[in-house]
Alkene reductase
Amino acid sequence: MGEMKMEFPYKSLFEPIQIGTWNLRNRITMAPMTRCFAEDESGVVDQDIVEYYRAKAADGISLIITEGITVSSRAKGTFNLPGLYTNDQVVSWKKVTDAVHEEGGTIIAQLWHVGRLTHRDLIGGFAPQAPSAIRANGHVHRYGKPFDQPEAMSVVDIKKVIQSFKLCAENAVRAGFDGVEVHGAHGYLIDQFNSDVTNTRSDIYGGSLSQRLTFMKEVLSAVIEVTGANRTSIRFSEHKDDIKEFQWSDKEEAIKTFIEAFNEVGVKILHPSVNQYDKVIMNERTFHQLVRKHWDGLIIGVGNLNPELADNAIKENTINLAAFGRLILANPNFVYKLKKGIKLESYDSKKHLSKLFYNS
Ligand SMILES: Cc1cc2nc3c(=O)[nH]c(=O)nc-3n(C[C@H](O)[C@H](O)[C@H](O)COP(=O)(O)O)c2cc1C
């Protein structure tokens, strides 16, 4: 008796795709994940981080989205976050991008400003920056103090932060990144502008949802000028890390308004973020299905995806790329395991978060 031939189950997930200059060997994307292993004072990344990202590319992941990288010293929300606004930081990231490229991978830098979700002790004694002077509930990650009272940004502050994003996009190119992702999700600075809970401004940066998206649009325009639309992704979400109960009053309308904003500034790659990819949120559709209903461009899917779910989502064209977060941390040889049909280990933060490398 011959062996039973099983058909490879993840054909769509392993289908190559060309996006602008990116030659992606499959659809497997590493979701952005803060690791807190950068040098705290300088925001420089070291050789361990080079090897950490190299290993992901060597495993076969096609697109790596880095951990959130701060765009200025005031953008930082906890200890040991990397930056991309000094020359030393750029030089340190160049080693990462070289390593990833040596292994045939593509890597983009996630640009991040935490806004009010920090404390003055972490950002040189300055008050946290926010659209309005509204303090967040909760505690600073790994610091433990309550979030600090932020100050409302002036228009001059806003223009400076937009310039920081632009400078970091330029630095990303200098550091050899293949593009950038703007972190507009999860309740951080851009998302604080997007939400009516945190943005009560009466100037052009406040008002209706489409008006509140002005800051995000200006950041995106500035970044796209540098990296181009084919190399720029925007991450956005309904959920906020600090306001668990937050919901849009009409989810589909909100998504449509976001997409209008993205079209206005010429964005081509969306990374809509949810915690549970297959959760129906409105009109019998999931978040990503609602985005797809109104958007023909590229979509990166994410949110507790497993390989089967991801493969189907790509096959039915809801998403084009599938980002995995915790499964990639739990399985350092994630792609190899998928290819060989080896069972995946489930994520355990105690085991998989405290170190960059461990014996699997
Ligand atoms: C340890 C950890 C760090 C994260 N850091 C970031 C981050 O820096 N930027 C971001 O946009 N999302 C961040 N996320 C969210 C992930 O990108 C992803 O959306 C989330 O983990 C859901 O995907 P998963 O279920 O495949 O893990 C983080 C998640 C984890 C588990």
Q: What stands out?
A: The chain has a mean pLDDT of 97. The chain has one domain: 17-352.
